[in-house]
């Protein structure tokens, strides 16, 4: 008799649970639906990885691969991380240029990608074992080859082209730059802070820094107003956002920072794209869309790649071929 009386009660509880769950799902859909969000204002901005650079085969690439030894046949005369390549990137339509820095023996920052010199140049060793003037004597195009070493099209053309960070900031006093600290040495973060702190506020607003957790944390502690990104800052923002972002909550760790979001992962973020971008803009968080899974700096480098960028997206687009994508994207903007 007691079981018969409790049956309707259990049925009511199941019905309440069902409608509560359905209401929660509906709430999550409404709160995170891009269809119901206002389209973001503005156009996407282009971030040129290493300026105008020679690109290379990605098959089988690892952290130990010397990419200078597997470039595609050259289509332009520029070498990455040089002043001419940065000038060409801005001329092609880049809104910002990414560059890599390493500490030198005479306490400067050399703009160069690799930790060691042997892959690209006619030198050996690491940058911090040399002064800036010694590094300028190297040929930064010495070992580039597209045919397995039969020819070296840039040999002899890169002598003196490795710039210092000071030279880059002098050459581009108002342009946006993304500085990549290649090491995980906290002392480099401290040194970079000392280098950047004398700059005026309006110049710092056009700069961002990313790299290893330790130097970025040290830099951010010294310069809390500077926009930074590291794997640690990304996790601090995105892990709690993935957990509770369905509610519209944006973690405090996201504020005033920068996110590099692989386009294979982006659709899994709550509210992607319009709601997500709306929330990040409100938190003064800059979003850069990178291609693929985020491995090895893949970019949006072909017209077909751009088809994967959400319509009305107004964040950054990472590209390794600004010479191709810049004119194409700006042409599309003019026809809209």
Q: Would you kindly provide a written description of the structure presented here, covering whatever features stand out?
A:
By secondary structure, this protein is an alpha/beta fold. It has a domain at 42-54 and 82-112 and 173-335: TIM Barrel. The chain contains eleven helices and nine strands. Strands 1, 2, 3, 4, 5, 6, 7, 8 and 9 form a nine-stranded mixed β-sheet that branches. Helix 7 (213-222) links the parallel strand 5 and strand 6. Helix 5 (186-196) packs parallel to helix 7 (213-222). The chain is elongated, with a radius of gyration of 24 Å.
Write the layout of secondary structure elements.
Elements: H1 2-32, E1 45-49, H2 83-91, E2 96-103, E3 109-111, H3 132-135, H4 165-171, E4 176-181, H5 186-196, H6 201-204, E5 207-211, H7 213-222, E6 227-230, H8 231-244, E7 258-262, H9 274-282, E8 286-290, H10 303-306, E9 316-319, H11 322-335
